[in-house]
Amino acid sequence: MNLKKSFRRGVLITTFAATGLFPVAHAEVDTLPINAGTFEQQFHTPYTGAGAFPPADAAAIAITPEGVVQSRTWPWYPSLAEHVGGREAVRCVAAQGGEVAVAAENGLYLGDGESWALALPREGTVRWAPMDVRAVVYDTESRLWFACPQGVGYRVAPDEWKLFTGADGLPFNDFTCMAAGPGGVWFGTTNGAIRFHDGGFEFRQGRRWLLDNHVRAIAVDDAGDAWIATNGGVSRIGHTPMTLAKKAALFEADIERCHRRTSFGYVNPATLSTPGDKTTATPRYTDNDGFNTGLYLAAMSFAYAATGDDTYRTKARDAFRALAFLSEVTQGGPYGGPKGLIARNVVPTTEPDPGAVYDEEYDEQRNQRDKLWKIMKRRVPVDASGEWYWKADASSDELDGHFFGMAIYYDFVCDAEEKGAVREVVRRIIDHLVAHEYNLVDYDNSPTRWGHFAPDDLNRNPAWQAERGLNSYSILTYLSIAHHVLSDARYREAYLQLAFDEGYGMNGMTQPKEQTGPRAPGHQPDDNMAFMNYYHLIRYETDPQLLSMYQYAIRTHWQYERLERNAFTNFVYGACARGQERTDQWGTVDLSPPMECYTDALDTLKRYPLDLVDWPMSNAHRIDMIPFASEGDDPPTMGSDHRGYAFPIDERQEIYWDWNYWRLSYEGDGTTLRPPHHYLLAYYMGLFHGFISG
């Protein structure tokens, strides 16, 4: 390939200088770091005992072979008859301090046992006349609560109430029961449980939280744990004091126990032979050995840089060795590829041949849906040693994972010898890309399906319009890292040619991904990869014009991403933009993130669920959900909460930073356990950059 030396800028920069954007020295900014402290982490434990379940005031609720039985009968006041009719019209009764509250079919009644008045709760200029009142309860602050299909509310003063509907964040309204105790007020519904705590609602639905979604009764014990009787048995949703660091330690242990695959220790999801039982976990291979392990390498590198603990250095070194093997296993033998080709994954030949699944019929079926899909003679060949199957047709996300992880490892962990090993891997991969006109070329001497970075594809082939911005920034990132690691001017020369002569700098500036609206979900993996690239592009760039382009791109992109409260993208934006300004013809803009960039990320890490099993879960029935009208689906398949944000991470199934947070339903079967390396990456990145402590 001819690498030009004449650029529109007229200057070729070949030296590297740190921009000063990233060191932890920035932690002296007034609003940082945020002290994560100790928080109450929620967890779910099924209760499988017989008879009445533990809380004393729930003795009237029993588990029988026929299911959960509630035998409680409410006290009857004869004077109620003229107001509500018979006993069957009373749904619930609560009493405190001489006052009796009655939830009845035709309203909410307050009295002293003899005389009664129909309550008409009012908040400001809004007054309700509740009908079909399902439950009443007094909370630990002696506030009276009621629940009915119109919504819920609690009394603030004799004629002043606080009222909630879906527009205020109430998740659902087909109520069955209510209970109060330390830690908040709980509502049972026909499709999930709800907790009101600290001024907001939490929705608990699906097997992550409940044995069955139809809640029959709830009791709250003295510790604040909720015992929830469902059609499928009794669930206990409890709380335990925890720090982010303790959660990280639990997740690190889970990875070692459940998610290490092959002698190289690739981090992968696990299959559970018994749904939900982590002791039956067997790690399985996926298409993403390189991507997942690259993220894990970055996480362990940040962990070492933030803590100085040599355990993380060892884990990072091992993860790098696993990545390096993916560009070694492709060499030699009847299916050997060009030097620098990476494999998607590897499987020992002592295990079943994956080629039995990924055969030519598989390729032909994929090609019917995607005309650019390659039909390969063998998609999973055997390596030269005969010891490994390796999967061909690697993609840009694999390359992104390799370069993202290796650059962080190189900068923050490596000694001189380890840096040499990184240089060797980086050089063989980048030289492969340069030698093949910036394409990733497989053993069949044609580009992989998703490994196209050449200008003729990205700039002049309509088939690549959707990938133009992302792939432009991906190849610029690879070249930037190569120049930084190898100190070779050729890579900076190639980088500047693409950035200026081929317009790659502006490609990503104007089109980080396809956008169809302010809340468009687009393709979530592309968002994740784009932010992985921003991190290095901005960190290494010395040219003010290119830096301005990258800053514009990340600021524009983050305006979309902020609604997801994604801890990883928020921390990348904080690392790239904190304390920075960008000036153009319209003036100077302060790029610094608002405080919620950090607090939203922290809240997501706190909420990150301990149970990462792929249980079924749905938000499609929520009354606080705003469907995406642009989707045109009936019923809707994607939507946001009542404020336009994605639902919190503990109320949806999508726990990877590159999954679709806006999807409303997930049909899991409890047999897949997801690895928690995404949490570890965001947590240790935030810790390293001084955004959080503890």
In short:
The protein is α+β, with helices and mostly antiparallel strands.
Description:
The chain is of the alpha+beta class and 694 residues long. Among the domains are: 198 residues, 6 Propeller (Neuraminidase); 197 residues, no CATH class. The protein is built from 16 helices and 38 strands. The strands form 14 sheets. It has a 4-stranded antiparallel sheet. Strands 6-7-8-9 form a 4-stranded antiparallel sheet, with no helix packed on it. Strand 21 and strand 22 form a beta hairpin. Helix 3 packs antiparallel against helix 4 and helix 14 runs antiparallel to helix 15. The N terminus is likely disordered.
What is the CATH superfamily classification of the domain at 44-241? TolB, C-terminal domain
CATH topology of the domain at 44-241, by name, is Neuraminidase
Shape: elongated
Number of helices: 16
CATH class of the domain at 44-241: Mainly Beta
Average the pLDDT over all residues and give the rounded result. Answer: 90
